[in-house]
Write a structure and sequence with these properties.
Length: 333
């Protein structure tokens, strides 16, 4: 493993922000720290960067223990939510600034800055100042600057949250392509589930200073281990064991050992298959058209059930439907 986070803890004013957090990253892996505001993900990123000291625990990078190493000696490339560009410097000068601090030759700085601006889609814009660039372009400059000194890791703290949705979607794809091309290990903080699912090799899902689950995006979405992960990573119908025992006994055969009273069944909306049926046992309470899909709320066996259908499906409020198929996974209550 390229990076190992071992039992990291941190408290502010007696409040525990991180509680013995551990995970590891491979050399070319893209990891997303995903969780709600206040769960500790940014504090953890700052500890990895060397900007905040942990109260306990250890961090190793390659074969080095960097727990007490100053930030300037860790070789981390940082990109924040705010672009933090020097307003009186051109884009090329902003990218070249870390190399100037390192006293690289002027020709080397110019060539490297030009290459990086080309890589982030800003070829030919190196002479522009930040106020002459859009928000997305400024964040591309910040990304190029973070890569200028060939860091050991790239650390991204909600770098896309200040951008509008269209630019955010485009830039997240560009960041992922660039990260793969450079083969640089990356940790990104985000509270956006879609962003994490789209970009990460591995998601570290956090809640209240602890890791709820670590795994691939598919693992967390299709096989959530806890109620929090099931509800935070996408939408979920959660059915208690007693309800399943009474109405869906077939699912009991797939229940984990020892789960007689501690597990719930997680059904993702797209795994609820329904069809219009005058004699159906479910009734459409609401149908919301979202373009490519329709999100339908059903009254079913005394419970609410959320289903997602193709956008061209036409189901009216009050219409009876049959629930033809259910697919799900068991999670901890």
């Amino acid at each position: 493993m390229h990076l190992r986070i071992h039992e990291i803890s941190k408290a502010w004013g007696g409040h525990t922000v991180l509680d013995r957090v551990s995970f590891a990253a491979n050399e070319d892996e893209f990891i997303c720290l995903l969780g709600p505001s206040g769960c500790g993900k940014t504090t953890l990123l700052r500890i990895v960067a060397g900007l905040t000291a942990p109260d306990a625990g250890r961090i190793t990078l390659g074969d080095r223990d960097i727990t007490s190493l100053p930030a300037r000696d860790r070789r981390m490339g940082l990109v924040f939510q705010t672009y933090s560009l020097f307003p009186d410097m051109t884009a090329a000068a902003n990218v070249g600034y870390p190399m100037r601090l390192r006293r690289d030759a002027a020709a080397t700085i110019a060539a490297r800055a030009s290459d990086l601006l080309e890589r982030v889609g800003l070829g030919g814009l190196g002479a522009r100042f930040p106020d002459e660039l859009s928000g997305g372009q400024q964040q591309r400059v910040a990304l190029a600057r973070a890569l200028a000194t060939e860091p050991a890791m790239l650390l991204l703290d909600e770098p896309l949250s200040a951008l509008d949705p269209a630019i955010r979607g485009q830039l997240r794809s560009e960041i992922r392509v660039l990260q793969r091309a450079l083969g640089i290990p990356t940790i990104m903080v985000t509270h956006d589930q879609e962003e994490a699912l789209a970009m990460a090799d591995t998601i570290v899902c956090m809640n209240q200073g602890r890791i709820e689950q670590t795994g691939t995006p598919r693992d967390l979405y299709e096989r959530p281990r806890t109620r929090f992960v099931a509800e935070f990573v996408g939408r979920a119908n959660l059915l208690p064991t007693a309800f399943v025992r009474e109405t869906l006994p077939g699912f009991l055969e797939r229940r984990p050992p020892g789960s007689e009273s501690t597990f719930e069944l997680c059904l993702r909306p797209e795994d609820v298959v329904i069809r219009s049926d005058a004699r159906g046992e479910a009734v459409v309470e609401e149908s919301v058209f979202l373009g490519n899909l329709a999100r339908v709320t059903l009254a079913w066996r005394g419970r609410k059930l959320l289903a997602e259908l193709p956008g061209n499906s036409a189901l009216a409020r009050g219409e009876p439907v049959s629930v033809d198929a259910l697919r799900g996974a068991w999670v901890c209550s």
